[in-house]
Amino acid sequence: MLSAQERAHVAQVWDLIAGHEAHFGAELLLRLFTVYPSTKTYFPHLGACQDQEHLLSHGQRMLAAVGVAVQHLDNLRAALSPLADLHGQVLRVDPSNFPLLIQCFHVVLASHLQDEFTVEMQAAWDKFLTGVAVVLTEKYR
Predict the structure, then answer these.
(1) Which end of the chain has fewer CB atoms surrounding its CB within 10 Å, N or C?
(2) Could you report the per-residue pLDDT of 45-91, keeping only the tens digit for each?
(3) CATH homologous superfamily of domain 4-140?
């Protein structure tokens, strides 16, 4: 899936995110809900206003899953299987939301990492996150 150079870029960006997962994830969710309000349908527990505690908590879980994927680039399918089951069979998240999430993720990364987030890194992360999205949607019925 990813070349050696792309893997290095994914790992390099993850090293910059590590330790800040909750804040990156919360910002990602807030951006997603703001730009694509229909995606908030899957988060009724957040209520009418954006509760920072819930955003941080779910953002932490989301980015923890991304961290698992980064650690298991060779076997995303196995590493993300429980998450794919949850999204496809229990939550029934519309798969069209994943590209929207990826787009927002790129914006968050670019806004925080700025010049450190090179074009090559963005391309590697796009390929990586698209692979994650594919795995997450494989178990849809």
Answers:
(1) C
(2) 665 556 678 888 989 999 999 999 999 999 999 999 999 988 888 88
(3) Globins (1.10.490.10)
Residue 127 confidence (pLDDT) above 70: yes
Domain boundaries of the chain, sorted by first residue: 4-140
Of 52, 29, 2, the residue nearest 107 (C-alpha) = 29
Q: pTM, whole model, 2 decimals?
A: 0.90
Question: Which CA distances in Å does 41 have to 31, 50, 92?
Answer: 15, 13, 11
User: Which amino acid makes up residue 52?
Assistant: Q
Q: Would you state the structure tokens that stand for residue 77, as one six-digit string?
A: 């399918």
Find the Cα–Cα–Cα–Cα dihedral 69, 6, 30, 140, rounded to 10°.
Answer: -50
Confidence grade of residue 42 (pLDDT, cut at 50, 70, 90): confident
Q: CA torsion, points 37, 20, 12, 85, in degrees to nearest 10?
A: -50
